[in-house]
Write a structure and sequence with these properties.
The chain has 599 residues and is an alpha/beta fold. Helices cover 62% and strands 10% of the residues. Among the domains are: 3-331, Up-down Bundle (ABC transporter transmembrane region fold); 441-513, P-loop containing nucleotide triphosphate hydrolases (Rossmann fold). The protein is built from 22 helices and 10 strands.
């Protein structure tokens, strides 16, 4: 199904609104068809001594004073005014109805797009820029509105108008009607010539616009680093280049679109000149009355309006098609971490985790080419209530290892088991709700501290929030804030220090008492005393949950039930702290180096 067919699927959800919009459009068309006839009545009958036709004699008998020329002029003027009011009211009400149901279509498409973005894997989001996705969410989703208000309704209304006008013109004078329609082949040829260039130019403009949005998002997100390294001029130059590229693409798009529109206007203008000349000759030869010619010219002016509207709708269709592809490209993106149709629900998650011969890597591009393996044949088991530590040099795959447990990615080979079930068979929402995460770079929302701690767990009480904050050593500094737990944070928690953000993130992980806790460098931004107290409190409750700890500070993991040492994506050592120290291998050397560094 093409993009327009898919957009039409959203339209059909609101058939009542669409039907009412079409009804009002037909009513407006009837008013337009009636517009020239009062002028004909005045010119041909009120201002001359020509005998009145039967329909006019009958109609004038119903209207007070209309049987006299003066009264007929008054009623003709009133009819013109009523037609103008009718056209205006029908157009306004039609616009209100159209905007009303089009808003709901935009809402539906935006919700579908957002839901898809939430389901797409971390790999997908790592390949995309936030600015581009924001452009698709905030701007491109209006494509369904444009498809109805700028393409579908104008085309249907214009075709109805053309049919009605051409029928009446054909009855008035077949020769003149044929001359008027002679421009249609020329308009079709111009459409065929301009369609592809307009499509390419419009697509390029949206691509450049998305690139600039991505640069803006990156610049605003990294403004502290930019200012810290005095790189404002560098980013300004990049923005100027990006804006210049967008300007070039926009100018080309506008030039091609304007050339197409002006070509149609020239063709219709030349056609009008020919019709006027031939029509004047037909009047002088007695084949038409002057009123007939005025009706004909009135329809002709209105006739080329719908023809131009159809031509412009084609240009709008090209633009909406380009935008629609950007939206549906996301909706059609493959879900690399799909959920099965009938996933398994675990009655009560105990927290046993088993990795069986797991290998995984990242794809280097959109087409998953240039893939490089990060983890090789990883196997280990963690029983409920145990603490397992994962250590190793930067880049050996520690964070990737625990990310597989939450199904941010799926392994290339092997499997990850939770309580004996392959995590790919489990309900994804239950799986992730069972795992509390604390990342090295915690993300906080611009909402209150209490809301950040209870994020995703609305039934948590304030007492539970405070208890979790105490365990995370966050209660003291939160209490000193003017609004305490109700203090609203800045974007990404910018109003707090790095250590304070980490402690709130730890409290958020602890408040739900999840059966599995993943701590990825959770205390890298706090001092040693605070870290020791946090770890002591965590150790007191460790028997209630399975805990994964990733840390470069080896002193934080001495109490772990199992320590895994990674090197080049493989497990090279495994055991408790004392055992690994006695072995004198990689872990022992890392630990001694850290001890020496602290002296």
């Amino acid at each position: 199904m093409g993009t327009f067919g898919r957009m039409f699927g959203y339209v059909l959800r609101y058939k009542a609104g669409l039907g009412l919009a079409f009804l009002l459009a037909v009513l407006s068309m009837l008013f337009e068809l009636a517009r020239p006839w009062p002028v004909k009545v005045i010119v041909d009958y009120a201002l001359t001594s020509e005998p009145w036709p039967q329909w006019l004699t009958t109609l004038s008998g119903w209207l007070p004073g209309a049987t006299q020329p003066g009264g007929l002029i008054v009623w003709s003027v009133i009819a013109l005014a009523l037609v103008a009011v009718g056209v205006g009211l029908a157009a306004y009400v039609g616009m209100v109805v159209t905007v009303g149901f089009c808003y709901h279509m935009v809402y539906d498409l935006a919700c579908d797009l957002f839901a898809k973005l939430q389901r797409l894997s971390q790999s997908y989001h790592q390949r995309q820029t936030i600015g581009d996705l924001m452009q698709r969410m905030s701007g491109d989703v209006f494509v369904v509105h444009y498809a109805v208000s700028g393409v579908m309704l104008p085309v249907v209304i214009s075709l109805l108008n053309l049919l009605g006008m051409f029928t009446i013109m054909l009855l008035l004078d077949p020769l003149l009607a044929s001359v008027a329609l002679a421009v249609v082949p020329a308009l079709v040829v111009s459409l065929l010539l301009f369609a592809k260039p307009m499509d390419r130019a419009t697509s390029r403009r949206y691509e450049r616009q998305a690139s600039m949005m991505a640069l803006v998002e990156q610049s605003l997100t990294g403004v502290r680093i930019i200012q810290g390294f005095a790189r404002e001029a560098y980013l300004q130059a990049k923005m100027q280049n990006s804006a210049g590229d967008l300007g070039d693409a926009y100018n080309r798009d506008m030039r091609i679109g304007s050339a197409y529109q002006q070509t149609t206007l020239i063709i219709t203008g030349v056609g009008t000149a020919f019709v006027l000349g031939i029509g004047a000759w037909r009047v002088s030869a007695g084949f038409l009355t002057l009123g007939d010619l005025l009706v004909f010219l009135g329809y002709l002016a209105a006739l080329y309006g719908p023809v131009s509207a159809v031509s412009m709708a084609v240009g709008a269709a090209v633009a909406t098609n380009a935008q629609a592809r950007r939206v549906f490209d996301v909706i059609d993106s493959k879900e690399e971490v799909p959920q099965k149709a009938n996933p398994i629900q675990i009655d009560q998650v105990r927290g046993q985790v088993i990795y069986e011969n797991v290998s995984f890597g990242y794809a280097g591009g959109e087409d998953h080419s240039d893939q490089q393996c990060v983890l090789h044949d990883i196997s280990f088991q963690v029983d409920p209530g145990q603490i397992i530590a994962v250590v190793g040099a930067t880049g050996v795959g520690k964070s990737t290892l625990v990310a597989l447990l939450s199904r941010f990615y799926d392994p290339w080979q092997g499997r990850v088991l939770l309580d004996g079930h392959d995590v790919r068979d489990l309900d994804l929402a239950q799986l992730r709700q069972s795992i509390a995460l604390v990342l090295q770079e915690p993300f906080l929302f611009p909402i209150s501290i209490a809301e950040n701690i209870t994020f995703g767990r609305p039934n948590v009480t304030r007492e539970m929030v405070i208890e979790a904050a105490r365990t995370a050593q966050a209660h003291e500094f939160i209490s000193r804030l003017p609004a305490g737990y109700d203090t609203v944070l800045g974007e990404r928690g910018a109003t707090l220090s790095g250590g304070e953000r980490q402690r709130i993130a730890i409290a958020r992980a602890l408040v739900g008492d999840s059966p599995i806790l993943v701590l990825d460098e959770p205390t890298s931004a706090v001092d040693a005393r605070t870290e020791a107290e946090i770890l002591r409190r965590l150790a007191e409750t460790s028997d209630r949950r399975t805990t994964f700890v990733i840390s470069h500070r080896l002193s934080t993991i001495r109490r772990a039930d199992q320590i895994i040492v990674l090197e080049n994506g493989r497990i090279v050592e495994r055991g408790r702290h004392e055992q690994l120290i006695d072995d004198g291998a990689i872990y022992s050397r890392l630990y001694k180096h850290q001890e020496l560094a602290m002296l």
